Every structure is written in structure tokens, then in C-alpha cells.
Amino acid sequence: xxxxxxxxxxxxxxxxxxxxxxxxxxxxxxxxxxxxxxxxxxxxxxxxxxxxxxxxxxxxxxxxxxxxxxxx
Length: 72
What we know:
- This protein has 2 helices and 4 strands, in the order ααββββ.
- By secondary structure, the protein is of the alpha+beta class.
- It has a 4-stranded antiparallel sheet, with helices on one face.
- The two termini are 23 Å apart.
- The mean pLDDT is 91.
């Protein structure tokens, strides 16, 4: 499923997480202190999911529009 950045950002958080985890392509992963940062590529944007290692759950996310996908 191809979804735009704007459609994705308008989805509820739970649906965003589910879509990223089921359809996203993992690009990078990094652990700092008690957090694990995982970057996923999805359509023309990227989503960074932040996991709390101490609480063993998702603690947040950042969404990045890949502007290079729109340059000619």
C-alpha cells in the first residue's frame, strides 16, 4: 500500500505504528542510554520509532518527509 506523508500523519498513532511495523523497511537502528531508535522507510517518507528499553514499549516517533523523492 502506497500512502502519502500527509495521509499517514492524519492516521491515529496506533495505526501509524502498525503500518510502519508491518510494511516499513528497516533502514537503521541505534541504541543510546535506555532508548532504541529504529528508522523505517515507508513510501516517500521515513519514520523513526523510539523504544524505551526500561519500560519495554514504544515511547514515541518522528516522521521525516524525504524531500529528495520529489526532486527532478
